[in-house]
Amino acid sequence: MTISAYWWVPTRPARTLAGEMVRHGRAWARMIQANRRISNFGDAVNPLIIKELFDQPVEWAPLGSEDMVCIGSVLDNYIRLGGRGKVFGSGSRTGDVQAGAIDRARIVGVRGKLTARSLGLDEGAAIGDPGLAVRSLTPVVPAQARTGPVVLPHFTDFVGERRRAILEIHRAGYDVVLPSAAPLDIAARIAAADHVVTSSLHAVVFADALEVPVARLGFASEAKTEPEYKYEDYRSVFGIATPRVTTTDILDGGLSRTARDEMDAAVAAIAPQVDGVVEGLFQHARSR
Fold it and tell me: Is residue 119 within 8 Å of residue 99, measured between CB atoms?
């Protein structure tokens, strides 16, 4: 049986594409110029993860006709646009969802404890981000075999001052990975990195799954930064915050020893927990 699942796709439905061209047209133009893709890897990995967890083929479906929603901050739209499928590890973008807004019978699990709390669930439902199951699809690379740092910006960062800062970081020795690349190609690049700095929550999830030190990347202009809530919700499962660095930190001589120590400490704390979270996802998949 094929699972019909919704995940965010910038080109579907047509109103989403129209909105993206209005809000982020220049950023997407750069993605198309670079690799001819209008895609965001952390959302695009959904069918691969769902197939891995449920061992069934997967097809995209619009909200309102889906069997499931999985990876991504999609619950706000799920509620607003009449989603009806099972919720399996999804999160809210800002936490502005209300207890009882989703029928409890539809909720298998959510991304983190903050989303669980806002929906009025007990913490047993907060099973973690299913993107962590990328560990089942991409081998962990031993630390001594990794080469060079990676910067993976959010797709909205490829305009204006932020794009110029990304280019400066690249010139400082970081390999720039485009978020429009294929999900498992990105997973392999992250797995092989000495460390990752990113403004994408999905990249934090991938790095945690693959035991790679990671920090959030902050820019001088934070007017359109992604919500803090998403990061706090995801890492609440592990009880540890995501270290944060700025473009200035990187360009003024590289990451400090303090920043690297925080990143390494996060790996040491999270890595032993990932297998348990992923196994919990498999158990939930089998039971449903």
Answer: yes
Cα→Cα distances 153→221, 225, 247, 257, 287, Å: 14, 11, 12, 23, 36
Number of domains in the chain: 2
Residues 32 and 69 in one domain: yes
**213: CATH:** 3.40.50.2000
Q: What is the pLDDT of residues 116-169, one digit of tens each?
A: 999 988 766 668 999 999 999 999 999 999 999 999 999 999 999 999 999 999
Print the domain residue range for 222. Answer: 139-273
- Which helix or strand (DSSP H or E) is residue 165 part of? helix 160-171
Q: pTM for the full model?
A: 0.96
Q: Would residue 73 count as lying in a domain?
A: yes
How far apart CA 275 and CA 111 sit, in angstroms, is: 16
What are the tens digits of pLDDT across the range 88-119? 999 999 888 988 899 998 999 999 999 999 99
